[in-house]
Design brief:
Length: about 150
């Protein structure tokens, strides 16, 4: 729940930022010189890129949460029983051992979104965020019947 509140608070701050940046772009365009019109147009592009990125991130998070809820109802959600440091960080060797199991499961059943979801969690636990996102996107695509890139 805390993560959701943080996400929405940061998203709200970004939206306010986009509005402020957009208003500055409009003010620059209203100056009417070639230079300020060019700068204003360039500044107006930034909020649109940011809004697109925020939208894509929100869609991804919602889809991943939808799959997590489905796995939870099936009783197949991965259990977090990894060894941790006193500070709460996952011990790398423990995460690597679980990762190897999850990788083998995904290789054995490459068309099962559940194995890719669990592999994404294992990548995340091993602190490999780019691969975690790719594995989760593959799980989402498999679940939704979308094309999967190799």
């Amino acid at each position: 729940m805390r993560a959701k509140i943080t996400y929405f608070a940061l998203a709200a701050v970004l939206v306010v930022y986009f509005v402020l940046v957009g208003s500055r772009g409009v003010l620059l365009i209203q100056q009417g010189t070639a230079l300020t019109i060019g700068f204003g147009a360039g500044v107006l592009v930034l909020p649109f890129i940011g809004a697109w990125f925020l939208w894509q991130s929100t869609k991804f998070a919602r889809a991943a949460n939808r799959l997590a809820r489905k796995l939870e109802t099936e009783g197949a959600l991965p259990v977090d029983n990894l060894a941790r440091t006193p500070g709460g960080r996952i011990i790398r060797d423990a995460a690597d051992a679980v990762f190897e199991e999850r990788r083998a499961e995904a290789e054995a059943a490459p068309d099962d979104w559940r194995t890719w979801f669990r592999l994404a969690v294992a990548y995340h636990d091993a602190r490999d965020t780019p691969r975690a996102r790719k594995a989760m996107q593959r799980a989402i695509n498999l679940h939704d019947g979308q094309p999967v890139r190799s």
